[in-house]
Amino acid sequence: MITAVQKPFDEISEMVKGHDKLLILGCGSCVTVCMAGGEKEVGILASTLRLFNKQNNISMEIIEDTIERQCDREFFDAVKDKILRADAVLSMACGAGVQFCAEVFEGKRVLPALNTRFYGATEQQGIWSECCAGCGSCVLDKFGGICPIARCSKSLLNGPCGGSQEGKCEVDPENIDCGWQLIYDRMKSLGLLHKLEENEPINDWSTGRDGGPGKIIREDMVL
Amino acid sequence: MSELKAGTNLEKVFKAGHFAVTAELGPPKSADVEVINKKVQYLKGNVDAVNITDNQTAIVRMSSIAAGALVLQQGLEPVIQITCRDRNRIAIQSDVLGAYALGLKNILCLTGDHQKFGNHGTCKNVFDLDSIQLIQALKTMRDEKQFICGDEIKNSKKAPIVEPRILIGAAANPFADPFEFRVIRLAKKVNAGVDFIQTQCVYDMERFEEWMKQVRERGLHKQVKIMAGLTPLKAVGMAKYMRDNVAGLSVPDYYIDRLSGAEDAPAEGIKICVEQIKRLKEIEGVAGVHIMAIEWERRVPEIVEAAGLLPRP
User: Fold this and answer.
1) Which of the listed residues A92, A117, A142 is the one where a domain comes to its end?
2) Number of H helices, E strands in chain B
3) Which of A178, A199, A207, A209 has the highest number of chain B CBs within 10 A, making it the mutation to test binding with B?
4) What's the mean pLDDT in B18-23?
């Protein structure tokens, strides 16, 4: 999923200042799963903002809603009227959802309530970690299903640097596992350690962000 | 004797079978040339070549190539460090051409410390290549006379090929984890075409000897010149700091005890370093030492002398 965390409240309250009618719009997909921008978080943020406005004598009507996805046009139909009537939309979607909402409702002010972080998985309740860098050329078959591009702090393709100590990455030993220790252990358990002796050639990064903003065109699907 | 690859002093020392000695010279955190001149005076005549670090620990310093050119002007042979942290393949290859044009012919390929440890922690990193791919790139430039993209190294269709004739170095860390992967990393560097290796500073001699055993089992010591890295300990505080805060580095307690008990800790640190060199000389496959006296270059001559490594060839 795409993971995100809520922006600091001070930043949000400053951002929405001056709007008389604000729609806080949640997203029912990834950000609901990672508990950052779903229906529940919309409710909490709306209440917090109302309380803040009351304490600071700010007059602002706050409307709440959540749609299934903010990255697909069809789901906006359900909230079209609310968006049109609002002065601004405080979107609790990921960066893609915020942008798409603004694109669908041209001329409407759409503000981000979240900081989008990474493509990740739920490690355990309340902990999400990055797994994929969206490089556009998956190498997981070579590394026992663990991505060195996303999970090594330096995206090294030929093994761990000198900063790997007791399974941890020196960049943040408390929180980051050394991706290469994970790869090494996995390949060892798979009996594939010899595969890691092969030199990985210089990488082609052009399939990812370095090739410019990504676009997928499926001719078989385009109407 | 087969042909020299780059013809540098360091390469000749290796080729002749001498026990090589190099040191490290950290460029200044300013444009102050005097800092370099002073360090050169300490090191000249006492080492075969000197490593010029490339913004080590991600702290901005004078560029390794510029500092290297200044060092060379003073008659000391530099080894230019190039890290993958700050430059992509375009910038790196351009720098290699420039370094060679300035007469800098030893290059050490490093991944580079993460920017988190330096004074610009909010910057973007590059890591377009890793250190092993960097070795491969330099070898391709030197031996295939081509850039990474496959283009020949010449100014125009009719122009002559003028490739950089570089002696290619790299680092190895026998102390980081996973330990069993450390010799595999070295094997990959040898595969990529590295000519010489400098190790992370050695304190834990037992672990280093175990690593060297693995190196010999694979016959790697016959394919690459391995220089053991050494950093003399100035004080017990420094020893503890290195033990506790530098990943991939272990400082055994018996060195810390010796420094704590010594009346003159710096002298004791130097004594330890000299003892280490003497022991390292006896290990099969160790082709030299690389002395990284951090902001302590002035003490390098006495270490080299006490270790019986003077005069240099």
Assistant:
1) A117
2) 11, 8
3) A199
4) 98
